[in-house]
Amino acid sequence: MILSIDPSSSAPLFEQLAASVRAEIGRRALSPGERLPAAHDVAESLEVNIHTVLRAYQLLRDEGLVDLRRGRGAVITERAAQFSPLATAIPGLVAEARRHGLTVDHVVSLVRKEFSS
Amino acid sequence: MILSIDPSSSAPLFEQLAASVRAEIGRRALSPGERLPAAHDVAESLEVNIHTVLRAYQLLRDEGLVDLRRGRGAVITERAAQFSPLATAIPGLVAEARRHGLTVDHVVSLVRKEFSS
DNA sequence: ACCTATTTGTCCGTATGTATG
DNA sequence: CCATACATACGGACAAATAGG
Predict the structure, then answer these.
(1) In Å, how far from its chain's centre is CA B58?
(2) Which residue of B has its CA nearest to A74?
(3) Closest residue by Cα to the C1' atom of nucleotide D6?
(4) B38 touches strand D (CB under 7 A)
(5) Full-prediction pTM beyond 0.70?
(6) Packing angle, helices B85-99 and B13-26, rounded to 10
(7) pLDDT, tens digit, for every residue of A66-91?
(8) Residues of chain A with pLDDT under 70
(9) pLDDT of B52-87, one tens digit each?
(10) C-alpha distances in angstroms, B46 versus B2, B4, B9, B15, B52?
(11) Which residues is B35 bridged to in the sheet?
């Protein structure tokens, strides 16, 4: 399933939907040219309103990940192929870690710790 | 009036509303710290739905021109003061280009063409 | 060239939630 | 505690662009 929602999450539904698509793109499970399912179908299968799905699609369009057009649907852009979720955050983190003389293992442990908190 | 709409325009209402605020900021008629009228009030005076106004406010927030917060309203950001006229025009142009499904290259060629005409 | 189904776009309305002051 | 004001989600209606027959 390309789109999914987590009932236990407090994040907005449209954000969750967009995030699930980003994740698929990030792991290359969605490639440029591929089409996302019609908002209507997603809405029906996930039992959410079509507007919620469309809002997620429009968010992805604003991010340049999909090309959204009437009658055509949501198509993964070429730009999406170069998409990496943490492309900007990771280099900054590593640079700062180096400035402080931290080891890779130390940084990793800090990340893991943060994830489990 | 800070926000206005043109009944003869075919542009979406929320785009018109955002554009009118951008214009005010561009001519320095709105300064950082100033608050836009509550969406509810704008909706009532212009006889549009509150969601249409909120969508315009959210668009301006995405562009970094206003700080939008619950219970507080829409406040002009510091960044807005440094915005050049082009910096205010570009987001609107890009937003509209995206709505029409235009590619970056297409928009660029249109701009170049316009410059050389 | 025409028609139809599909699909997103906008706008309205309503309800409820949540942060701010 | 309370009023204000934005945030999200639902639903409905109609418009407009696209694709396919």
Answers:
(1) 9
(2) B101
(3) B70
(4) yes
(5) yes
(6) 170
(7) 999 999 999 999 999 988 766 666 77
(8) 85-89, 114-117
(9) 999 999 999 999 999 999 999 999 999 998 877 676
(10) 11, 7, 15, 14, 11
(11) B75
Chain C: bases < 7 Å from a protein Cβ: 5-14, 17-21
Q: State the residue for tokens 């969605």.
A: A30
- The amino acid at residue B101 is G
Residue A37 phi, psi dihedral angles, 5° rounding: -60, 150
Decide if B62 touches A, using CB distance below 8 A: yes
Task: Tell me the nt nearest to A40, Cα to C1'.
Answer: C7
Return the structure tokens found at B71: 């219970």
SS3 A24: helix
Q: Per DSSP, which regions of chain B are E strands?
A: 66-69, 73-76
